[in-house]
Write a structure and sequence with these properties.
Length: 332
C-alpha cells in the first residue's frame, strides 16, 4: 500500500513537470504573438486575509491591474505554515497568470526546521523582492535600558538571565532575537508563544524583559508610550520610526535582518514573462501611492531583478539554516 502511494506521488510529480514543460514550450513557440497577461492574474497569499503579506499582495495587485488593464486578484490559501498556498502555485500552469506572494518564513526558514512538502529552488522561480520590514528591539519604559548599550550592560549584569518572548519557535521574531544575542555575546531565556499578541501582552504586564517584534505590531504600543524602542534590525531606519537607530549604526557590523515579502512564479515560467512581470512590479513599487501604503505599515520598498532575489533568498536560507542547526531550534 505504501509503495503504491509513493508511486502515485512520483507519477503525479512527473506529470506536473511534463505539463509545465509543454506549457513553457508553447509559450516559447508563440513568441511575441502571445500577449501577457492574456487573462486574469492571480496572486496567491499562503496566509489568511488581513496580515502583512495580504496587505502587500493587495497593494501590488491594484498597481498591476491598472498597469496591465487586466484584473489582478488576490487569493488566500492559508494552512500548514504556508505550504498549501505554495504547493498550489507550484502546481499551476507556468505561464505567469498564477503567482505567489511569499515571505521569509515559508520560503527560507521553514525548510530548515523540517519537511515542508515543497522545494523552493525547484518548484518556484524568483520574480522580484517587494519590501522589507524590520524587527524592533523593545523593552518597557521602566526598564534600565534607555539604549542598546545600556541594554547589553543590563543583560550582562542582571542577577538572572533576562527573558524574551517570540511568536513561536522558529518564527522570525525568535530567530532575529537569537541572531542578535549571538552578535552581542549575550544569553537570555526564550519564551515561545502562539503568535505575537500574547508575547506583547506579557511584555506589557512585566512577565518578559524584552522582545524583538516586527514593526507593524509593535508600532501602536511604541506610539502609546508603552514600549521603548531601542533599535531596528534592517540596515536602514524604518520610515515610521525614523528616530530609532539601526543596529548597524550602533556598531553591529552587517546586521541586516527583516521580515520580507517577494513575488515568485511557478518553476518553468518563461524568462520573458518573468522579466515582463518584474518590470511592471518595479514600476508599481516606484509609485508614490505604493510607497506610502507600504511605508505606513513600516516596510521599506525593495525592488530589483529576479537574479538579485534568487541570490538574496539563497543567502537568507543559508543564514537561517545555520542558526537553526547551531542552536538546535525545533518547530513547535
Amino acid at each position: 500500500m505504501d509503495r503504491d502511494h509513493s508511486t502515485g506521488r512520483q507519477h503525479g510529480t512527473g506529470l506536473r513537470r511534463f505539463w509545465h514543460a509543454c506549457a513553457a514550450l508553447a509559450l516559447a513557440l508563440a513568441g511575441p504573438a502571445l500577449a501577457f497577461p492574456g487573462k486574469t492574474v492571480t496572486i496567491v497569499v499562503p496566509f489568511t486575509p488581513g496580515g502583512a503579506v495580504d496587505i502587500v499582495a493587495r497593494t501590488v495587485a491594484v498597481g498591476l491591474s491598472e498597469a496591465w488593464q487586466q484584473p489582478v486578484v488576490v487569493e488566500n490559501k492559508p494552512g500548514a505554515g504556508g505550504a498549501i498556498g505554495i504547493q498550489a502555485v507550484a502546481r499551476a500552469v507556468p505561464d505567469g497568470h498564477v503567482l505567489l506572494l511569499g515571505s521569509v518564513g515559508p520560503l527560507t526558514i521553514n525548510p530548515g526546521l523540517g519537511p515542508v512538502g515543497y522545494d523552493v529552488g525547484k518548484d518556484l522561480a524568483p520574480v522580484v523582492l517587494l519590501a522589507k520590514t524590520p524587527a524592533v528591539l523593545v523593552t518597557r519604559p521602566t526598564s534600565p535600558a534607555g539604549d542598546v548599550r545600556q541594554f547589553v550592560h543590563w543583560a550582562r549584569s542582571a542577577p538572572a538571565p533576562l527573558n524574551y518572548g517570540s511568536a513561536g519557535n522558529g518564527n522570525i521574531t525568535h530567530l532575529v532575537s537569537e541572531y542578535f544575542l549571538g552578535s552581542a555575546g549575550l544569553k537570555a531565556i526564550h519564551v515561545p508563544y502562539k503568535g505575537s499578541a500574547p508575547a506583547i501582552t506579557d511584555l506589557l504586564g512585566g512577565q518578559l524583559d524584552f522582545l524583538f517584534d516586527v514593526v507593524p505590531t509593535a508600532l501602536p504600543h511604541i506610539r502609546a508610550g508603552k514600549f521603548r524602542p531601542l533599535a531596528v534590525t534592517t540596515n536602514v531606519r524604518s520610515p515610521v520610526l525614523p528616530e530609532v537607530p539601526t543596529l548597524q549604526e550602533l556598531g553591529y557590523r552587517d546586521f541586516d535582518v527583516s521580515s520580507w515579502f517577494a513575488l515568485l512564479a511557478p518553476a518553468g515560467t518563461p524568462g520573458a514573462v518573468i522579466e515582463q512581470i518584474n518590470a511592471a512590479v518595479n514600476q508599481v513599487l516606484d509609485a508614490d501611492r505604493t510607497r506610502e501604503r507600504l511605508s505606513a505599515m513600516g516596510a521599506n520598498v525593495a525592488g530589483g531583478t529576479p537574479v538579485e532575489l534568487g541570490r538574496f533568498m539563497g543567502a537568507e536560507t543559508q543564514r537561517w539554516r545555520k542558526l537553526i542547526d547551531d542552536k538546535g531550534i525545533k518547530a513547535q
